[in-house]
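Z., the sequence and structure:
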Amino acid sequence: MFNNDGSIQFQQFDEKADSTQVLPRLTALRAALSAANVDAFIVPRDDAHRGENVPAGDERLAYMTGFTGSAGYALVTKDRAALVVDGRYTIQAPAQTDTDHIECVDMKPDAAQKWLVDALEAGSKVGFDGWLHTPNAIKTLREALAKAEINLVETNNLVDEIWTDRPAPPTDKIFTLSLDQTGKSAADKVSDLIKTIEEREADALVLTLPESFCWLFNIRGSDIPNTPVTLGFAIIEKSGKATLFVQPEKITADVQNELGDVVALRPIGDLTGNLAELAQDKTIWLDGNTCPSKLANIVTEAGGKLVNEADPVLKIKSRKNAVEIDGMKAAQRLDSAAMAKFLSWLDAEAPKGELTEIAIVKQLEQIRRQANSLVDISFETISGSGPNGAICHYRVTENSDRRLIPGELMLVDSGGQYREGTTDITRTMATGPATAEQKKHFTLVLKGMIALTLATFPKGTTGSHLDILARQFLWAEGLDYNHGTGHGVGAFLGVHEGPCGISPRYTAPLEVGNIISNEPGYYLEGSHGIRIENLIVVVESDKGTKDQPFYSFETITFTPIDTRLIDKSLMTETEINWLNDYHKKCYEIAASQLSDSDKAWLASATKAI
């Protein structure tokens, strides 16, 4: 989309949800069920690469249900249908779909089998597309359904059969990164990975996650919104041969020359035949939690043996090297200036009562574009005014766009994909005098964010261990938030990456070089939402010893936190000192990048409390 001045607008505001199409599409899918001789079909949000963002042609869940969230799945039988979503989308899902014909179900681990067993009779068959489900998930569901004598069977994708105007796969060009951006050559990364493959006594490793092979080969792309990857698959053999399977249109002569000594480039259509040939009497490493079930079946049908273990690149790339960390810090410095300009503008405009959520998103994106290295936004900006801020993953559209009423809280969660690195930041701002309730909620969230920031912990500690630090003050008041406290962040890659993070589900030990978000929140439906988010990097602590290392966090995000929303009486001296020191650094980092008026605003916003 282009703005009035001719510049490109990354974020779009069209209403992707269309509940009026749910019933006719369910009717068409049910006809396809009968033709395929199955009694139900599973429609996941995932594509073959398990990405949080997927190409337009893989938005099957949105096509069938109207729901546009980043996680969930639908279950469709001949007379019933369910949309299964997690706690982030309990408000969004029923608002977007047709609840007269689709029931919304909480995404518990056994939600699919329970619903299907209730909806189907013994002897029924449930169809699925083997490219869109993992071997581990299919095994678990198949075993659970078998107890009720319900069979899980692989079929063609029945949604694709009825989606007559389905968009074609993306063919955007691949581009390479230099050594001063990555800190390690692709050849060296492949060499190290081959050692890992040999140690596991495998003959080859199949990579199906684009962020893994893009990191490995030091390449990027623009196949999907907000995440600079190219879609495809890679096979790394212990012999040293590496092959990348992508759409041929993506490969330029320059890329071919730069990668030719490290990896062979093959058409994506060659993948299945190549894997079947390679797998004969060989041991193939596939991540059963992320790879398509289809590929695992190809290996076993060819007589190969599977190593079903985690993609080893995930852990390796999460430990950022010094060059990657420097790049990430540089990106946050650029973003600190952009955010200061934005907040200065918001403070001046919000009291006028004329701003809308879309206008706020557009202004922030245009300010970020002043940094010439901005490639994209890192996710669709969450711009929630007043009660919309309480919708955790709210996406503003032309239909939902709301005017910010002075006095409401304004929550903005946003980020940029700079050549230097990836950013992710949330700030909640006052737009007039704050109520005592708003201040209390905000301060409890801030105290949790500071507590996690200041944590010191022994080697081996996981994000699940630390999560309570951010929630403790809310819990003490009988309050909580229904999302993780933090997620891993890639270096000019996905804004959400594993295996590290801060929540009960993150059980991987935190390691030096991990960069994660620190973002507790609180959401009062119908009133306001509060979230405060910085990025932090795991560093060695001087409190440890050689025999017992300790780690801590270094904050790399520097944007003022709205002191007008703080109830100082609820804060300790340690917390106040941290905030004042933090604000001093915010000014030092951003001031030299600002105009006199924005610098004056920043000086006021960072005054000690």
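The chain has three domains: 19-162, 175-313, 319-601. Residues 150 and 476 are 46 Å apart (CA to CA).

Let me know what you think.
H.
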